[in-house]
Design brief:
Largest sheet: 7 strands, antiparallel
Mean pLDDT: 84
Shape: elongated
Strand order of the largest sheet: 15-14-11-12-13-10-16
Helix content: 10-25%
Structural class: alpha+beta
CATH architecture of the largest domain: Beta Barrel
Distance between the termini: 63 Å
Number of helices: 4
CATH superfamily of the largest domain: Translation factors
Low-confidence stretches: 30-40, 334-347, 505-528
Strand content: 35-45%
CATH topology of the largest domain: Elongation Factor Tu (Ef-tu), domain 3
Number of domains: 5
Number of strands: 36
């Protein structure tokens, strides 16, 4: 063998011991640093100490700023609107002009009231000279659906037995409610078959107290009549008894029926005579005429003030919500002063809301809505006002959910004091505090193990086998998704051990029977670290 080849082989033999020694050292290092991976690949053991702290569970909802509930502004009826100075969304101050009236219409209204006062004075005089009778007139337009009185009936007896003398339908609709065997959508059309077999068109109004509400015309169908409802494809929905959708009971408690002036199913106008009573207590007609005169006098005084300056002024600061009048339109016209033909009371055709408070309309997830109650406090953040926080109070919790992306969301209204930076329609995020506990024992949620609907923790660890020991069952309380209250099973200061894997952060544990809120704020937490 040549000398050069012998030298090369010797060099190779000298390198192998060093390579072998390096591999052995690396293997020892790996086994020393990562002993836990021998028994639990992909996990590490951590520990936490059971300590006292505070826990607040919150629910978060988003929505928009809106006006508070509006109130009606009274406007004297029978006047012609000359000019309107406001529109929906305007803010007005006390004393600002809202609208003006045609002076001629004010004068005509004054003359009309004076004429009515003269007629009322004659009625007052005649009340003591003629037998006491009283004609009851309708103050509303509608349809007569039931007449429960007959001639010579004592109205007090009928009223005690029936709760009304006549039933009127005010909105032209009858109604029924039933449990549908299949889903019906709002505004869906159905067929309603009357007891005589005639068909009427019905419309689904919605769900109330678990039953579907359907309305139909009040022209013909009778109060208490049993009807059959079918879908447009012929499927039967069920049977139900008809009731008046918007009923009005006509009542009286004194006197005897002298005559009845209407018939069942008759459509009547405002002021229509319904029935006449006799044998009234002494002086009733006189007292009624005096009351009518007082009403007319108050109207006359208001008209005389308008004659000086035919302007409607804002009684207080407000936001205008709706203006239901137009220039050149006659105001009011529906409500009658009882017993005085043609005279009208003040009616409201303009609505306004207070300027010092707003309402937030937010939507809350169906998983959280049962924890939201009226009176709870909420922290409000506006997208357009930076990080500034405002305080509000839950005013109303809706009972009808709205579907959004396959999940039901429920409307919640939050009352909040107005601020100069706020604008109607602004986007808001509301954080509602639904539960809070102070000075309770807490552990990280991930430290608990669930089995058979029970929660357990481990209080020991075997370093040699890298296994967890000392399993103890615990009772849990409030949870916010990160931490959980320990009600029973452990004492303060106890150290527990648990394994953490990469998937734990994706699927956090929820203590049995204690669903966490969607968001939380918290103070000192249980100690969490690695041993």
């Amino acid at each position: 063998m040549p000398d050069d080849q012998v030298k090369v082989n010797r060099k190779k033999r000298k390198k192998w011991p060093w390579i072998t020694a390096g591999l052995l050292a690396l293997l020892i290092l790996v086994l020393t640093i990562l002993p836990g991976r021998r028994t639990s690949s992909g996990s590490t053991v951590r520990q936490a100490v059971l300590e006292k702290g505070n826990l607040t569970v919150t629910v978060v909802g988003t929505g928009h700023l809106d006006y508070a509930k509006g109130a009606e502004v009274e406007i004297l009826s029978g006047l012609v609107v000359d000019e309107i100075f406001v529109e929906a969304g305007d803010r007005v101050a006390q004393g600002d002009r809202l609208m003006t009236f045609d002076p001629l219409s004010v004068q005509e209204a004054i003359q009309s009231v004076l004429s009515q006062i003269e007629s009322t004075d004659a009625a007052i005089q005649a009340a003591s000279l003629s037998p006491d009778t009283r004609t009851v007139r309708s103050r509303n337009a509608g349809r007569v659906k039931a007449i429960l009185i007959s001639k010579e009936d004592k109205v007090s007896e009928v009223y005690r037995a029936e709760g009304a003398l006549i039933w009127l339908s005010l909105d032209g609709r009858m109604a029924l409610s039933l449990e549908s065997p299949f889903e019906l959508k709002e505004d869906e059309k159905v067929d309603v078959f009357l007891a005589n077999g005639n068909r009427r068109d019905g419309t689904v109004q919605g769900i109330k107290e678990g039953k579907t509400v359907i309305t139909l015309t009040d022209n013909g169908p009778e109060m208490g009549e049993e009807v059959t409802v079918k879908a447009k494809d012929g499927r039967e929905i069920g049977t139900a008894l008809l009731s008046i959708h918007h009923p009005l009971a006509i009542v009286a408690t004194e006197g005897q029926v002298r005559s009845i002036h209407v018939t069942k199913n008759e459509k009547i106008a405002v002021g229509k005579a319904l029935f006449t009573l006799e044998d009234l207590p002494q002086g009733w007609a006189y007292q009624q005429a005096l009351a009518d005169r007082q009403t007319l006098t108050e109207r006359l005084d208001a008209l005389l003030e308008l004659e000086k300056s035919p302007v409607l002024l804002a009684a207080e600061d407000a936001y205008i919500l709706q203006v239901n009048l137009q220039e050149g339109q006659l105001t009011g016209g529906d409500s009658l002063v009882q017993g005085v033909s043609g005279s009208t009371l003040a009616t409201a055709q303009l609505t306004a809301a207070p300027p010092d408070v707003f309402v937030l309309s937010i939507l809350v997830d169906e998983l959280d809505i049962l924890t939201v109650k009226e009176g709870q406090s909420a922290r409000i953040v506006f997208d357009a006002i930076g990080q500034r926080t405002f305080e509000g109070v839950i005013e109303e919790v809706g009972g009808q959910g709205l579907e959004s992306g396959g999940v039901a969301k429920y409307p919640v209204k939050i009352r909040i004091p107005a601020h100069e930076l706020m604008r109607i329609g602004m986007s808001v995020t509301a954080t509602i505090m639904v539960d809070e506990k102070v000075d309770i024992l807490l552990l990280p949620v991930i430290a608990l193990t669930e089995s058979g609907g029970q929660a357990f923790v481990y209080t020991g660890r075997d370093d040699k086998s890298d296994s967890l020991t000392g399993q103890i069952q615990v009772e849990t309380g409030l949870s916010d998704g990160d931490r959980v209250e320990i009600v029973e099973g452990l004492s303060e200061g106890t150290t527990v051990y648990y394994r953490v894997t990469a998937s734990d952060s994706l699927f956090p544990f929820t203590a049995p029977g204690h669903r966490p809120g969607r968001n939380n704020t918290e103070t000192p937490s249980a100690t969490d670290g690695q041993p």
